[in-house]
Amino acid sequence: MALYIGLSIFYILVMLLEWMIGKRLNSKLSIIILLLPLFILAGFRATTVGNDTLNYYTTFLSVSQENLFSSTVSRLEIGYIFLMRIIGNLGLSYLGFQIITTAFIFLSIGRFIYKYSLNPALSVFVFVTSRMFFGTMNISRQYIAIAILLYSIDFLKKREFTKFFIIVFLASLFHSSALVFLILYPIALVKLNKKRIILFIGVGTILSIIFDNVIQLVINLTNKYQGYLDSQYFNFEGNTAIYFQLAIYFIFFIVGSYTGYWKSDYNNIKEINSNTINKRIRKSNNKGVTITNEMIWYVAALLTFIIGIVGLNSTIMDRIAMYFSVFYLAYIPSLITKIRSKHIRVIIINGIILGLFLSFCIVMIYRPNWNTVFPYVWYQD
User: Which residues cross the membrane (predicted)?
Assistant: First the structure.
């Protein structure tokens, strides 16, 4: 536990260093330095580190020995099965498989932070203290899907739906729930206003009320996940994790709403010149709504909050929210820059850092079973 808390303190110190020198660490080398310790811990962990790691290990031992195109009894998606077989046929052990998949996850997240974050150190701090990092050591199959989905943002901004869909489809080959990411495309095209935001939240509230009926419909249509109904993922009674996560989602959403983050950036004339504005307006008139980074980040925060409301009936909805909450890595640093008042900005920054750090420590101390990532043990054959 001390190891993870020490890492979070290290990232706080890096942020303080950035503030003192007045320069952000946004080079590729700095991203590598920030993420390398986390990659080593995730890639070289023992099978006892993480709730699902042992299951991945035993599955790899059997599936990796199968012929490349043979049938299998595994319930896992074909993309993940095919990847295990390829790595197994190359003669690599589970450790090699774990290192390769972890490397892909961290390369994708590192690329995303480098390309879109306005404060990489803060992004990595959020990555650790929001326990996304622990997710890479638990539900790594889903994080492979998330890592693939991060490459779709470029196509979403360009409004190239076919390429966007292909990326989402590839992600679904590793975790079928990744298909829910498709909803980001049409909602990102909607010009948000207060009424529409309230409408979306209202729909989420209604879905929360009729949640049981919706889930049964999905199970009947897909003929999958029936076994989940009696599992811990649909056990609501006394589950503080649901309220805990919803509170975090609500705070980030409400701060974005307070700052007017969802509004068009055409009004921010000081940041872009008139020629750029005219070009964007012409492009918008020709193709519809121009999708900016800010629009994507805020829509993702909105969807995360709505899914959190629906998830009041089930902890499994938090798995769905992960596809959108990963954008907090860019949303939170960007959100801070939108706060004009220096005093309010300082309060928000300190509140976010202190709040995430305290929640991180509380979970580590009182709910270690949520992740089972300590005591940390290195992989041994």
Answer: 6-22, 29-47, 92-114, 121-144, 164-185, 197-221, 241-261, 295-314, 320-339, 346-366
